[in-house]
Amino acid sequence: MGFDLKEKVVLVTGANRGIGKVILEEAFARGASKVYAAVRRVESADDLVAKHGDKVVAVHLDLDDPQSIVDAAKTATDVDVVVNNAGVLRLQKALDPEAVETLQFEMNANVYGLMRVAQAFAPVLKANGGGALVQLNSVASVKAFPDFSTYCASKAASYSITQSLRESLKEQNTQVVSVHPGPIDTDMGSDAGFDEAASPEVVAIAIFDAIANGQFHVWPDPMAVQVNSAYQSFAEQVVETSMEESPA
Q1: What pLDDT is stored for residue 90 in this prediction?
Q2: How many CB atoms lie within 10 A of CB 101?
Q3: How far apart are CA 246 and CA 239, in angstroms?
Q4: Alpha-carbon distances of 58 from 91, 224, 243, rounded to whole Å
């Protein structure tokens, strides 16, 4: 599996800033014919529309609002690639009094949001020949950090769902890509307290390289590469291998 992005239609959640905005620009650099900028506030994509004209279509999509996701899928009926980039992070330790509420907030966007996007857009991708579904996970999905432990838990859950989607969508010829960045130079990376962070461009480039090459896992930056060096054997022998026996 894997395909060229030329003349393809892409949808990016959270496309108005950070990694999402760079993903949108990289999609055009790869020859995409149109990108849906799926954002909570449509006006936040005005600069992208001004720059790219009718090649950018701003659509309302809020991971906390299930109906907005359904409506976005009804609008973007020609989409070939869906990149679920949007997510939330709060600095919260597991023993903090607000930790349960924070985890509920992060799970709603980072996990339930992914599931809602997949449920809404899988039929669209199938109708258009299969395409690809890309999920922005994190190195935090395989390694917990105590200062934002609830975020790590939500990303571990989203990674698990992404693995299941890979198997479920294979029969409709939809490629699933799981992206695991380390610290990236964005507002979210700054909020997490990372002083040294990689450029968002490395993530965008790695995503579309993975689509072209039919890869599932993407480890785009120096910290991610370091984590993958230890994780790769497990990923290849367990995660990426079909296991016929049901779990006990």
Answers
A1: 93
A2: 13
A3: 14
A4: 30, 31, 41
What is the per-residue pLDDT for 28? 98
- CB-based burial of residue 67 (10 Å sphere; 0-12 exposed, 13-18 middle, 19+ buried)? exposed
Q: CA 238 to CA 104: how far, in whole Å?
A: 29
Token couple for 110? 């980072």
Cα–Cα dist 194/184, whole Å: 8
Q: What is the pLDDT of residues 90-108, one digit of tens each?
A: 999 999 999 999 999 999 9
Burial class of residue 146, CB neighbours in 10 A (0-12, 13-18, 19+) = exposed
Please list, in sequence order, all residues whose beta carbon lies within 8 angstroms of the beta carbon of residue 81, skipping any fewer than 6 positions away.
5, 8, 9, 10, 11, 27, 32, 131, 132, 133, 134, 211
Q: What is the pLDDT of residue 189?
A: 46
Q: Examine the pLDDT at 192 and tell me if it is beyond 60.
A: no
Going from N- to C-terminal start, the domains of the chain cover 9-238
Q: How far apart are CA 159 and CA 148, in angstroms?
A: 17
**Residue 175 near residue 240 (C-beta atoms within 8 A):** no
Q: For residues 5 and 81, is the Cβ–Cβ distance under 8 A?
A: yes
> Is 9-238 a domain of CATH 3.90.228.20?
no
Token pair for 76: 């973007």
- In whole angstroms, what is the distance from residue 120 CA to residue 209 CA? 25
Q: Tokens for 141, please give them.
A: 């999905």
Question: pLDDT at position 190, please?
Answer: 53
User: CA distances (Å), 182 to each of 120, 124, 200, 227, in order?
Assistant: 28, 31, 11, 9
Share of the chain above pLDDT 90, in %: 87
